[in-house]
Design a protein that fits this description.
The structure is a single chain. The protein is of the alpha/beta class and 204 residues long. It has helices at residues 16-31, 52-60, 66-84, 101-110, 157-166, 184-196; strands at residues 2-7, 36-41, 87-93, 117-119, 125-127, 133-140, 171-178. Helix 5 (157-166) links the parallel strand 6 and strand 7. FMN binds at residues 9, 15-17, 94-97, 139-142.
Length: 204
């Protein structure tokens, strides 16, 4: 079994989402010692944001600028890592109500027509990446749960749930640590709760 571990936080060792995603990966590894883990750190080694030059390079082939071709090749590697994985664990902090741009760049390389989705004869999208399990570790500075006044500002969990549903992934779990900027005690409580929730993760 292969697990892809993706992190997007720019905060390094101070990152809550990285702490929780690492705990999730450790749980899976404890459950299945033979687990093969592939690591992708989107802050340490960002994927180039998709541009018109990247799309043009796909048509130009070897005539495209070398730098753009190299960025497309890295994007293709990111896609293949996702396709090869049985389990995907993602550390996704909320930045200004949405996902970090580094994570959005990764999503743009994973949602590829003909690879992870296609459009049927009726024009409706058909997901091609079903059968995977995705676990997302989310950190939020404030409180954005469904029962809070700020619920309408939450665009990480809702966005990623839609992204994976679009490509056919329905087995998606969220480990949420929120209120991490509301004070030291609330931060610790949020981390403890989210990390504690990893005990329910089973390899099979």
């Amino acid at each position: 079994m292969k697990l892809l571990h993706v992190d997007a936080s720019i905060l390094g060792d101070n990152s809550v989402s990285r702490t929780v995603s690492a705990a999730a990966v450790a749980r899976f590894k404890n459950e299945a010692p033979e687990l093969e883990i592939v690591r992708r750190d989107l802050a340490g080694a960002p994927i180039a944001h998709l541009s018109g030059a990247h799309l043009a390079a796909l048509a130009l082939g070897s005539d495209a600028p070398a730098g753009v071709r190299a960025e497309n090749e890295e994007g293709a590697r990111a896609l293949q890592e996702f396709l090869d994985a049985d389990v995907v664990v993602i550390g996704a902090p909320m930045y200004n109500f949405g996902v970090p741009s580094q994570l959005k760049a990764w999503v743009d390389r994973v949602l590829v027509a003909g690879k992870t989705f296609r459009y049927g004869e009726d024009g409706r999208p058909v997901g091609l990446a079903g059968g995977k399990r995705v676990v997302v570790a989310i950190s939020r500075g404030g409180f954005y749960g469904a029962d809070t006044p700020m619920a309408a500002f939450e665009h990480v969990q809702s966005y990623l749930k839609a992204v994976f549903a679009f490509i056919g992934v329905t087995d998606v779990e969220f480990l949420v640590a929120e209120g991490v900027m509301a004070g030291p005690s609330l931060r610790e409580k949020a981390i403890e709760s989210a990390v504690g929730a990893t005990v329910r993760l089973k390899a099979a």
